[in-house]
Amino acid sequence: MKIERVEGKVFAHTTNQVADTDGHAHPGPEQQTRSALLVITCDDGTTGQVIARPGDVEEPLLDKFVRPVLLGSDPMRPEHIWQALYKWQRGSGMKLTDRVLCAVDLALWDLIGKATGQPVWKLLGGYHDKILAYGSTMCGDDLEGGLATPDDYGRFAEWMVRDRGYQAIKLHGWMPPIPGAPSVKKDYAACAAVREAVGPDIPLMLDPNHWYSRADSLWLCQRLEELGFLWIEEMMEEASLSSYQWLNARTPRLNILGPETMAGKHWTRAEWAASGACDMLRTGVWDVGGISPALKTAKLAEGFHMSCEVHGTGAGNMAVVAAIPNTTFYERGLLHPFIDYDVPKAYQNRIDDEMDSAGYVHFRDEPGLGQDLNLDYIEANLV
Ligand code: LLH
Ligand code: MG
C-alpha cells in the first residue's frame, strides 16, 4: 500500500462567528468564510481526510514539502513520515509549521483507521470509551446579553449545568481589544459569579488574558484557590518558564496547567514538567504538530504522575483524549449564549463531539477519526 495523492481542497461555507483583532472568536452576523479538507489517497483507493485551515494546506506547501515526503510512502508508518516532516521544519524557513504537520498526521491516521477498519482512538490505546466534557466558554465580549458582565457568565454557567448537562466549566475571561480588558478584578468577579451559580461541586477552570504580570497572576490565583478552582492556564507569556516556576511555587492549592501555545512540541512540555513550572501538562494536536507529539506529551506526563489536559475540540484531539488514561476532561467549545454549538456546520452531517445529557462525550466505533463530513457539500462549494 502506497500513498498516491495528496490534495488540499478549499471550500466556502457560512459562519456566525467573527475573530477580533487579537484572534479571539465571538458571535457575529452570518457571513462567508473558507475552510479546507486535506485528502490523502492510496494506490488501493483508501483515503484519509481532515478539516484544516486553508493556510495549512496551501498548494506551494503541499508541493514543496508534503508530497515529496508522502508520495510513494507506506501510510502505515506515520511516525516515519512525521519524523521526515519534522526534520524538514528547520530548513523550511518557518513555512512547514506544526499546523501543517498536524493536518498531515491527522489525515494519515484517518486513513490508517479506514484501512484497518478501526477507530483511531482504539489504535492509539483506547483507554476511555467516553469522558466528561467541560464547557469551554468564548472569551468575554461587550454584547448585551452575551458574555459582557460577571452576571452574564453566572447565568450562562447555570444554563450549561442545569439545562445542558455539563459537569465542568472553563471560563475564558475578557481580553483586549474588549474595552476594559484585561482586568484581574473583572476576571475574578466572573469566576465568583460562576461558582455562586453552579455551587461547590462543579469543577471550574480559568483561561484568562495571556499577558498578566507575575503580581496580577498571583493575586488571581490566590482568589481562585479560595473559590476552589481546579486549574488556571496561560495567564502569562509561556516563553518565561521561570515566571511559571515562580508562580507555581506560590499556589499550592491551584493547579497550573501548561504550556498551551508555546512552541517546541513534547520537548518544551518535558522541560515544564521537569522544572516544576506546572502541575498538569497541556497538549493539543494543532499546538504540537499532530497525534504523535501529543501522545508523547501525555506519556511523559504519566511518567511524572501528572495529568495531561488536551487543548481544543475536534476529531484529532478526541482521539488523543480517548487514548490516554491520565486526562480528566474533553474541552468542548467554544460556547456562547448566542451560538448553538450542537448544530452541525454546513460541511458536516453531524458534529464530531456530540454530548449526552449527563455531560459525556462518547467515542464512536466507526473506522478512522470519526468525522462525518458532507463531502457532496464540500465538492459543490470548492473555491
Ligand atoms: O484566546 C482564545 O481565544 C482562547 O483562549 C482559545 O485559544 C482557546 O482555544 C483556548 O485557549 N482554550 O483552552
Ligand atoms: Mg487555553
Topology:
Blueprint: E1 3-19, E2 25-42, E3 47-52, H1 59-70, H2 78-89, H3 98-116, H4 120-123, E4 130-137, H5 150-163, E5 169-172, H6 184-198, E6 204-207, H7 214-226, E7 231-233, H8 241-249, E8 255-258, H9 265-274, E9 280-283, H10 285-288, H11 291-303, E10 308-310, H12 315-323, E11 330-335, E12 348-350, E13 360-362, E14 372-373, H13 375-380
Parallel strand pairs: 4-5, 4-11, 5-6, 6-7, 7-8, 8-9, 9-10
Antiparallel strand pairs: 1-2, 2-3, 4-13, 12-14
Helix pairs in contact: 1-2, 2-3, 5-6, 6-7, 9-11
The structure holds ligand LLH and magnesium ion.
Characterization of this structure:
The chain is α/β, with parallel strands linked by helices. It contains 13 helices and 14 strands. The protein has helices spanning 59-70, 78-89, 98-116, 120-123, 150-163, 184-198, 214-226, 241-249, 265-274, 285-288, 291-303, 315-323, 375-380, and strands at residues 3-19, 25-42, 47-52, 130-137, 169-172, 204-207, 231-233, 255-258, 280-283, 308-310, 330-335, 348-350, 360-362, 372-373. Strand 4, helix 5 (150-163) and strand 5 form a beta-alpha-beta unit. Helix 1 (59-70) crosses helix 2 (78-89), helix 2 (78-89) runs antiparallel to helix 3 (98-116) and helix 9 (265-274) runs parallel beside helix 11. The longest helix has 19 residues, at 98-116. The protein is globular, with a radius of gyration of 20 Å. Ligand LLH is lined by residues 24, 136, 139, 172, 207, 260, 311-312, 331.
